[in-house]
Amino acid sequence: MTGRSRDTNSALLALNGDLPGAPFLSSLAALHSTIVAADGAALGLRSRNILPDVIIGDLDSLGDAADDFARAGSVVIRMESQEENDLEKGLRWLIGGGFGSVTIVGAAGGMIDHTLNNFSVLAKYAREIKIALRDPLWHMHIVAGSMAMATSPGDRISLIPLPSALVTTSGLAWALRSERLEIGVREGASNRALEEMVSIDVADGVIALIHYPNPAIRDAGPSPG
Questions:
Q1: Topology annotation, domain 140-218
Q2: How is residue 41 annotated by DSSP?
Q3: pLDDT at residue 98 above 70?
């Protein structure tokens, strides 16, 4: 834990999907006081020379390595429930521990049903803890209320409802004014920032806000129809 910022209200939660490379993940870990691994994600962290503070889940992916992590100093928490996936177990543990925000890595990749289920869980807990997801190419925020974020003009911003939301925006090329986005009806993909600050207000429902600050990504893809 030496050298980390000690923000005791913030945690990094690694899932057993596609994890970023070691340099990016190490820099992200340095911003959080507590690192939590969901089951087999602990192995991915260890391969990047990061020891999780806590490992949580049914431990079916971790197996006998759980004892090695315990000896190295990780707190290993076994939760056998099959009614919740490891993401939900991790979020419930963080909320119960008083954490106000979490940054998640490894939520996508692997089996598509697991990825879709993860987004259902994120929507379920969006009102109980501030949730962000990170990747080297994009930032994502799960929004159930209001937020503002710094952008550069031209940045690509997508608003994906989970599964429905009443949304108002400012600072975007295609503004929304108390308009309904809904899966299967209308989404808000590939919008663009016009200003150095973008804000969103979700009066009802939950939105996944995806921000691509990379210029190579910024100009990719069609404009909203």
A1: Rossmann fold (3.40.50)
A2: H
A3: yes
